[in-house]
Amino acid sequence: MTAPLHEARPAGPGRALPDTQQGMRRRNLARVLHTVGAEGPLSRAQVASRIGLTRAAVSTLVDELIRSGLVEELGPERPGRVGRPGSALAVSGRGPAGVGAEVGVDHLAACVVDLRGEVRARAVRHGTNRGRPPEPVAEELTGLIRQVVAKAEQLGLWPAGLAVAVPGLIARDGRTVVRAPNLDWHDTDLGALLPAGLPLTVDNEANLGALAELWLGDDTPRDFLHVSAEIGIGAAVVVDGRLLRGTRGFAGELGHVPVEPEGPRCPCGGRGCLEQYAGEEAVLRAAGLEPGEDRVGLLAARAAEGDEKVRRALHDAGTALGVALTGAVNLLDPEAVVLGGALAALAPWLLPSLRAELARRTAGPACPVSVSRLGPEGPLLGAAHAVVRAVLDDPAAVAERG
Amino acid sequence: MTAPLHEARPAGPGRALPDTQQGMRRRNLARVLHTVGAEGPLSRAQVASRIGLTRAAVSTLVDELIRSGLVEELGPERPGRVGRPGSALAVSGRGPAGVGAEVGVDHLAACVVDLRGEVRARAVRHGTNRGRPPEPVAEELTGLIRQVVAKAEQLGLWPAGLAVAVPGLIARDGRTVVRAPNLDWHDTDLGALLPAGLPLTVDNEANLGALAELWLGDDTPRDFLHVSAEIGIGAAVVVDGRLLRGTRGFAGELGHVPVEPEGPRCPCGGRGCLEQYAGEEAVLRAAGLEPGEDRVGLLAARAAEGDEKVRRALHDAGTALGVALTGAVNLLDPEAVVLGGALAALAPWLLPSLRAELARRTAGPACPVSVSRLGPEGPLLGAAHAVVRAVLDDPAAVAERG
């Protein structure tokens, strides 16, 4: 364990609230905060009418949120309204904030997002992490985290929690990296290597990218399949606005869905897995390119220049994605498929064959496929917003400790 | 609409309860009823200690449940305990009950299940429904339903709702059969053809079979994939004890997951779908058998006799199931796969190749595959129990109308 980062006043993410008077108060605090966040600035009376509680009940709840630094008063409303002038309420731009961090194969990053959803501090370090042991990577990441937290504290914010995106399978304990093949990490307790004193969650990058899409995307439906790629191909299944995690936390392994039952061997133990056709290395090989630092950039640049071999390789990868997604769509019946991460950058050359394959295998209208606008930023933003959401969902936990 | 079956006092299944004093009372009624159902007979004091409410609060709730006929007193507890003797409480074997019905390809059935989960009335009619229009089938089914309801009423029960299992895709309205290929039904409002006056749900047979497995199976986990077959191959995904239905209600179409991307054409529009390798007709064809009335029985009998061609056909079907399930397991990370319906009867000849294929494609331990003990009864039981669960989940809805 490293030294505490901060005298933490942590939020309790995702705790079940008991069904008592006290539990009801906690849930109503969350409803007031969510309403002010989603529709503010609002007066107390407007909040009361939105959520169907009395003005008096809402006032008590608002006072508590103001005392905890979660809500602030913007000053009196414009005059001319009937009744005593109220003061407009808004979610605070100071107080608790979410810290997000990311271990990428070729970069490290950290950021702080306030309760309004704005990024207030950010730090990035480029350079490969392939084959580096977890300890120096975590140390470097801790440096970036301390840097963004220090900046945020100057702005009157304090970290309510830390979430870290990793390109690998994460155990349901939310701290152990079971397998991250492109980092060559196995059974690594990453939680133990990161700053102590803050509530911490380590999660798969595709999961956090999908949450970012859900929360920050344009008209993202509440049931969708998010497909992303850095080196491997990951996916995340969102059902009714919630991540489907799976028993071990390993759901969404689209990269290992068989596409050709007797195709080439895959390191996972299978044969003909999607990654053997649409993974970055397979595509580079098919395109006749050498893997370098910015593989996706290289593929996109060559495809844009009209390189036929690269275009053919991406076309075939799109077809393989279409076969695997046909199976996924049949199983899950999502409202949409969203391509994120590296796949978003390659979408112009993947999408036509991917969509054709889905359509060819579907009697009715095929599931729509769209491209994320968040691109490679998704997982980092998803991480920070996951902490912010936990505060908004149970503000009493912060209030008690604040 | 046909004439009302009964002066109904319907339960409101799955309604969201408001977060108010009244909502809290409704949820606590459900908690008391669930506790008595799961652990009864219990005294009021035991219920209070189980759910963490005061004895006085529990007494008020219990009185309400007794007045509505949902709970009954079994008489005084055995003496010798400390304090005033309490009366043991149990869920009532009279009062509201669930009516389940099933449209099978080769049969129709109906049953009534009481709040204790016991089947109190049952009626079956054998004979094919292939190519019959929905109207006469619904009329015949209505006859069976009236028969079991009349029997149940003699026993002091009254129907709280009706759920109907159908082998096809059901719209999320819970009444329209969008497509049932083996009945040759399309866009059929089955709800309009069934007895009026009762809350009604039409659902896919694989979904209801999975719920039966969840509620009645031996140690069924809360995250599993249920695979069943009558003529086609259906599946249902259960996540944290809840069915994953999909946007249109079509989730679980395992039969149309591609197994060989350039395999034979499938009526669904695809190519090389699982049903082309493991569907009943494909297996009969591969085994060199003519489709008759009891296809599964024929396959099982021949395989048991040692018919090599039939065994080979089932072996190959198991392999194809293994390929499709590898994809499903990678996407969903379930705790187990359960084979139900017709697949349960053929399990001895399907399982070895199915398990081998899953293991061959998995680096770590493969997902365990088990066989349902409910067999072909699953969907019918699941239907009746779905109604019973709705009553147990919101007893206030019944109490208000009872």
From TrEMBL, chains A, B:
According to the record, the residues making up region (Disordered) are 1-23
**One GO molecular-function entry:** DNA-binding transcription factor activity
Q: Record's InterPro entries?
A: ATPase_NBD, HTH_MarR-typ, ROK, WH-like_DNA-bd_sf, WH_DNA-bd_sf
One Pfam match: ROK
Boundaries of each HTH marR-type domain copy? 30-81
Family stated for the protein in its record = Belongs to the ROK (NagC/XylR) family.
Which PANTHER family does this UniProt record tie to the protein? BIFUNCTIONAL UDP-N-ACETYLGLUCOSAMINE 2-EPIMERASE_N-ACETYLMANNOSAMINE KINASE, ROK (REPRESSOR, ORF, KINASE) FAMILY
Q: What is this protein called?
A: Xylose repressor
